[in-house]
Amino acid sequence: MPRATLLWDLVLGVLGTTAFLIDLGVDLWTASRYVLSGRYLWAALVLALLGLSSVVLQLFSWVWLRGDPDGLHASQPSGRWLALLHLLQLGYLYRCLQGLWQGLLVFRQEVPSEFDLAYADFLALDISMLRLFETFLETTPQLTLVLAIVLQSGRVEYYQWVAIVMSFLGISWALLDYHRALRTCLPAKPLLGLGSSVIYFLWNLLLLWPRILVVALFSALFPRYVALHFVGLWLVLLFWVWLQGTDFMPDSCSEWLYRATVATILYFSWFNVADGRTRGRASIHLAFLLGDSILIVVTWLTHSIWLPSGNLLQILLPMGVVCFFLGLALRLVYYCWLHPSCHRGSDQVDGILGSRSCQLHQLPQNKRMTKLAQNFFPKARGEAALTRNRDMNGVL
């Protein structure tokens, strides 16, 4: 692997960890400003979302560590210290620092070993998945809450601007990082290029903005019923995830934790969890969220509920419609012309995969993320089966 690529991966890891710490600091700063201004309920909601997402994140991290093969994390502290770190809500930060240390170790080697490279990828994949969970369990609800407060009050404070900008960038970055991480699980799948990454980043940002805006509008209009609205849709989405027969976690109890988290993600954005063609399921999910968003907007228009930011909404809602259709157009452009599979050199990639297949089974492999990647890219299973057949026929 070129040293420039190793350096770039290390820089991205530093940026991701820094962004997590900045986002945490912004949330605590925002909560403190609410307390100082006497808005204790808003401060309590910010801290409650932060605490709930942190607990769920530590549970995922701990369950994964307990389910990893024995001897894989030989350089880690003992189980008691790891349990204490997760109990103190420091497990995810520890993983980020461990990933940075492993990346630095690989970069400093003149010729990195296959095991060190594979172990660095293993850690990076878990961090990417945890970052995605943290984004939709904490950052996205926090952004919705801030927008609802702005719509209710009719003004935006300077610290709220900081929270809004950081949240939007963090959400889109987490989605892009997760998609890139999925492709590293499958050697037969080429990585995203710069142009494809930019378009993928933009269409996720443009499709998320209208959804978050209408949920924030509902929260501002009916603050007493927003929890009922979320729970109702969340139960429907949880049932849908259960019907797809997910098998991601090591036991049934933690699997329900995963399904509940996925249902929360689906409340805001698309997330594939099952094998097979995704076009139909993605279309159903998009239509479901679009219908719910339209009902919220129609409710506001028909009830003529007064908000201090009524004039602001007359600008934001048309912008949301434009962003939705622009994001949908960019999504179509991405999957029709910019998707890496459209430019894949099959012979070269298959050759690389075949030459390394005899080594991969001896190296650390993140089976959790590999399974998700195979679900996300249905053709991956066929390519993997073809590779196994070639190996059995003596091509190696």
Automatic annotation (TrEMBL):
It is found in: Cell membrane; Membrane. The chain crosses the membrane at residues 6-29, 41-65, 158-178, 198-218, 225-244, 256-274, 286-306, 312-334. It comes from Galemys pyrenaicus (Iberian desman). GO terms for biological process: apoptotic process involved in development; engulfment of apoptotic cell; phosphatidylserine exposure on apoptotic cell surface. Signal peptide: none annotated. Keywords: Apoptosis, Cell membrane, Membrane, Transmembrane, Transmembrane helix. This is XK-related protein. One of its GO terms (cellular component) is plasma membrane. The keyword Transmembrane helix applies. The keyword Membrane applies. Belongs to the XK family. Coiled coil: none annotated. It is a multi-pass membrane protein. It comes from the Eukaryota. It catalyses: a 1,2-diacyl-sn-glycero-3-phospho-L-serine(in) = a 1,2-diacyl-sn-glycero-3-phospho-L-serine(out). Its main location: membrane.
